[in-house]
TrEMBL record:
Principal localisation: cytoplasm
Function in brief: Coenzyme A-dependent lysophosphatidic acid acyltransferase that catalyzes the transfer of an acyl group on a lysophosphatidic acid. Functions preferentially with 1-oleoyl-lysophosphatidic acid followed by 1-palmitoyl-lysophosphatidic acid, 1-stearoyl-lysophosphatidic acid and 1-arachidonoyl-lysophosphatidic acid as lipid acceptor. Functions preferentially with arachidonoyl-CoA followed by oleoyl-CoA as acyl group donors. Functions in phosphatidic acid biosynthesis. May regulate the cellular storage of triacylglycerol through activation of the phospholipase PNPLA2.
Protein keywords: Acyltransferase, Cytoplasm, Differentiation, Fatty acid metabolism, Lipid biosynthesis, Lipid droplet, Lipid metabolism, Phospholipid biosynthesis, Phospholipid metabolism, Transferase
Taxonomic path: Eukaryota, Metazoa, Chordata, Craniata, Vertebrata
Gene source species: Hemibagrus wyckioides
Source organism, top-level taxon: Eukaryota
Any matching Pfam family: Abhydrolase_1
UniProt-recorded name of the protein: 1-acylglycerol-3-phosphate O-acyltransferase ABHD5
Length: 437
């Protein structure tokens, strides 16, 4: 869809279209300036570009590569109403270890704001396909995918459809995982005035009031969300953050409308992810990060763990953090994500020799590889079937070479292994120095 056409998408059910830009003190250039101020404190070198995808759409992208281009890249997906600028306190730290990509989701920020389907499943597909086209255009073979809020939901949906492209899935305070509770339970959960307000506001987009406020909008953001200014106070002592949030959310509400169409009353997802997360490929490790003070659902992580008994699921609660974990406790958040990324790319899988008795090397891939065994008459290398690997995270130095029992190998697999004796070149490539000895 062409740029000029994108600008005329209706505001949800209101049918208010062309007069909003003149009513709200905003413009594309003001959004660009607000984002520029958000990114100004960043010390690392990075590039900014539009990545063009199908139907004339484009996704606004920040790229931090530095000297770590060979590492698996980390891709950041922001939440509802967000944009790349909200990662300002994380980008320097996270990009020290590996390439980092952050982009405005389709329908948000500086990315194209096209018309989305009113069908929840189709709208979700539009988001997911835009992510895949973006990855393909940038030539990224596989990624560590991190999503916050709506971004977490879309990261999980992407992992379901394109599992071979995801090395590790990191869900940060994800939206849309639990289903809507039973009517009786929901009635007990909310006071009467909230239920009445829901009935009145349900036809409208979530942030329609901000646009309706017109010139009062910037002040309204500061009144309604003064916490954002506090979260980023280490970087800014003015209204930089609230101005950025304002300009993000008074443009054409394309992604906002899509989100509205993906929800039912009280913001529950029409297609809860917990009903599908068990179908994500078992080889993909999942890390769920919550803020200890968040009011958002904190039980989905345990549910994911129960649904995936044979897969790695790690639950992390960051003390003193609310829903915006990455801004509330950025140092702790950055440390946890960097540690998770290290585990994902270095030593996720340990392989046993065909005797199922010893382990002497680890591999960063779940695919069958060659493992070195020093038992018997001398070293030999054999190709191992998938049933022999075991996922191991945060492998300690003392555990390297420790025996790990694996299941027995049947005769047909043993014969296949006998016929595959190839040299092992770089099985432990990228591992810590102590691991490569």
């Amino acid at each position: 869809m062409a740029e000029g056409t994108e600008a005329s998408v209706e505001l949800g059910s209101w049918g208010i279209t062309r007069w909003l830009p003149s009513w709200c003190p905003t413009s594309q250039s003001k959004l660009e300036e607000a984002e520029e101020r958000m990114l100004q404190p960043i010390q690392s070198k990075f590039s900014k570009q539009f990545v063009h995808i199908s139907n004339d759409k484009k996704l606004w992208t920040l790229v931090f590569s530095g000297s770590v281009e060979s590492k698996t890249p980390l891709v950041l997906l922001h939440g509802f109403g967000g944009g790349v600028g909200l990662w300002a306190m994380n980008l320097d730290a996270l990009s020290q270890q590996r390439p980092v990509y952050a982009f405005d989701l389709l329908g948000f920020g500086q990315s194209s704001r096209p018309h989305f389907s009113t069908d929840a499943q189709e709208a979700e597909t539009q988001f997911v396909e835009s992510i895949e086209e973006w990855r393909e255009k940038l030539g990224l073979e596989s990624v560590i995918l991190l999503g916050h809020n709506l971004g977490g939901y879309l990261a999980a949906a992407y992992s379901l459809k394109y599992p071979s492209r995801v090395k590790h899935l990191i869900l940060v305070e994800p939206w849309g995982f639990p289903g809507c509770p039973e009517a009786d339970e929901q009635d007990r959960s909310f006071p009467v005035w909230i239920k009445a307000l829901e009935v009145v506001l349900s036809p409208f987009n979530p942030l329609a009031g901000l646009r309706l406020a017109g010139p009062l909008g910037p002040g309204l953001v500061q009144i309604v969300r003064p916490d954002f200014k506090k979260k980023y106070s280490a970087m800014f002592n003015d209204n930089t953050v609230t101005e950025y949030i304002y300009h993000l959310n008074v443009q054409n509400p394309s992604g906002e409308t899509a989100f509205k169409n993906m929800t039912i009353s009280y913001g529950w997802a029409k297609r809860p992810m917990l009903q599908r997360v068990g179908l994500i490929h078992s080889d993909i490790p999942i890390t769920v990060i919550y803020g200890s003070r968040s009011s958002i659902d904190g039980h989905s992580g345990n549910s994911i763990k129960e649904m995936r008994p044979n897969s790695h699921v790690e639950l992390i609660a960051i003390r003193g953090a609310g829903h915006y974990v990455f801004a509330d406790q950025p140092e702790d958040f950055n440390h946890r994500v960097k540690r998770t990324g290290q585990s994902a790319s270095v030593n996720l899988y340990v392989f046993a020799c065909r005797s199922a008795a010893c382990i002497t090397t680890a591999c960063p891939s779940p695919e069958p590889r060659f493992a070195h065994c020093s038992r018997g008459s001398g070293p030999y290398r054999r190709r191992l079937g998938r049933q022999l690997w075991q996922p191991v995270l945060n492998l300690k130095e003392s555990e390297v070479g420790a025996p790990i029992r694996a299941q027995e190998v049947d005769d047909s697999t043993r014969k296949q292994m006998e016929g595959n004796a190839e040299d092992l070149q770089t099985l432990s490539h990228g591992a810590p120095e102590w691991f490569q000895r």
